[in-house]
Amino acid sequence: MLKQKLQQALLQKLSPQQIQIIKLLEIPTMLLEQRIKKEMEENPVLEDAAEEHLAEEPYQEELNDDNADSHNDDEFSLADYLNDEDIPSYKLNISNRSKDDKHEDIPFSVGSTFHEHLKSQLGLLSINERERMLADYLIGNLDEDGYLRRRLDAVADDMAFAMGVETNELELEHALHLLQQLDPAGIGARDLRECLLLQFRDKPMDNPDVAMARKIIRQHFDEFTKKHYDRIKAKLGLSDEQLKQALDVVLSMNPKPGGGFHDPYNQTAHQIVPDFVLEYDDGEFQLSLNSRNVPELRVSREYSDMLESYAANREHSSPQEKEAVAFVKQKIDSARWFIDALKQRQNTLMSTMQAILDYQREFFREGDLSRLKPMILKDISEATGLDISTISRVANSKYIQTHFGIFPLKSFFSEGVLSDTGEEVSTREIKRILQECVEGEDKRRPLTDERLMEILKERGYPIARRTVAKYREQLGIAVARLRKEL
Q1: What are the distances in angstroms from CA 130 to CA 136, 155, 179?
Q2: What's the mean pLDDT when you consider all of the chain?
Q3: What average pLDDT score do residues 473-479 get?
Q4: φ/ψ (deg, to 5) at 87
Q5: Which tens digit of pLDDT belongs to each residue from 86-98?
Q6: Does residue 169 sit within a domain?
Q7: Would you give the distance in Å from CA 411 to the centre of its chain?
Q8: Are residues 127 and 176 in contact, defined by beta-carbon separation less than 8 angstroms?
Q9: 3-state secondary structure of 296
Q10: Residue 197: in which H helix or E strand, if any?
């Protein structure tokens, strides 16, 4: 049985403007310019205040030279908006080129991709069409490093389902051997050991160091990867010098034969545009937002005047005019929301960065990591009165330019460790000491985690060995055994 009843509920919902502010907070300055351009393309009500100011005077002079009739024709009105489909095409296009200008097309030149490079070599091999088809399919299964990470039986199943081609592992193994003949050496390997062994084909095997290096990879690969050099010397009867020369041969090889290939379609340029600029002069800080490429937006006066004229003549307006004005009003509201969101983004970024600057003032004077105080998101949240999630969005993907370098904001956040004097020290200072100890160690006898713990205790930082191991892993430093060199 259906019943109707009234029910009151309390729900939390974000308004469209709040959602817009959250999204704008997350993007850095480099993407903000693109976001603003996209908004200006979608919303004709938004305009660049600087461009409008520059174009205002010459446009006014042009109107003064015209008669009153032409002035009325060029004036923006609701009627023009409703009849925009009747505008001649020559009024919508602009060309700054004369008939006498010489037009030259510059050809777009690119190289070949990694897979195209292999397929071009495959065409030079004296093989039949079936072998060429199988090898070509295997090329498509290579990863960016040049390895075949898939099992051959899985490749055979794929060819049967996708192409209707029946094959087996033995036939694919033969096609893979053909593929492994291509350049660069080591291509088509299924693991690192096979990759290195394939590269020995181009090495002079009459050289004793090369022969010994190949023997080490073939027979003692596990000991080699784990750097158990004493076991290798004992089994092969080698001296330290002989083992070092053999390992130098292995280290000269390329473990990723496909990784060094120049791919014109896979070029990644990592460009950092700082969101903040911090200047330090005569003991004073000057913090500013980097907004040189961000235009100053405003609502178009023509559209505002249109709404005012409609409000004055609302009684005599047609349904079509009401619909058009409703659309314009929606665009004006959206433009105002976007402008307010940009202003709120600017205020939030500045207040957050100012709080970080006040908290880490000693560090920003000279850039000394030992002056960096432990700081978490909650500290800045309490200083600014903003939510922790907002501080996290501000710190993510944002950079600041200082007089001693460019740094990501999240690098200033770190946990604290108590020294033996009771002073709280940033974990970044601990990691810096670990990095210096590892860089200055004797590679024949690398420092163990136990020894690193003792060094930190001698410097006044009593931390456990497991904590040393955690910081070492965060720095990307291998264990002592894997850092050992001859």
Answers
A1: 10, 15, 13
A2: 79
A3: 85
A4: -70, 130
A5: 445 544 455 555 5
A6: yes
A7: 16
A8: no
A9: coil
A10: helix 192-199
Q: Which among 435, 459, 431, 462 is positioned nearest to 447, based on CA atoms?
A: 435
By residue range, what is the domain housing residue 377? Answer: 276-412
Q: Which of 332, 300, 338, 307 is nearest to 55 (CA)?
A: 300
User: DSSP letter at 287?
Assistant: E
d(CA 430, CA 461): 8
Both structure tokens of 335: 């433009």
Polymer length in residues for the chain: 486
Last residue of a domain, one of 216, 251, 286: 251
Token pair for residue 282? 């005569």
Q: Is 237 left (phi over 0), alpha (psi -120 to 50) or beta?
A: left
My answer on whether 176 and 134 are in the same domain is yes
Please check whether residue 328 is in contact with residue 307, taking contact to mean a CB–CB distance below 8 angstroms.
Answer: yes
Same domain, 385 and 430: no
Q: Is the preceding peptide bond at 184 cis, omega within 30 degrees of 0?
A: yes
Instruction: Tell me the pLDDT tens digit for each residue of 338-372.
Output: 888 888 888 888 899 999 999 888 888 888 877 78
Residues 453 and 383 both lie in one domain? no
The residues with which 399 forms a beta bridge, in sequence order, are 408
Largest CA distance in the chain: 105
Per the domain annotation, does 268 fall within a domain?
A: no
| Helix, strand, coil distribution of the chain in percent, nearest 5 | 55, 5, 35
Beta bridge pairs of residue 288: 277
Structure tokens at 450: 């136990």
Alpha helices in 298-426 (DSSP H): 301-312, 319-359, 361-366, 377-384, 388-395
CA atoms within 13 A on the CB side of 89: 0
Q: Are residues 455 and 404 in the same domain?
A: no
H or E element, residue 402: strand 399-402
Find the radius of gyration of the CA atoms of the chain: 34
Pairing label, strands 405-408, 284-289? unpaired
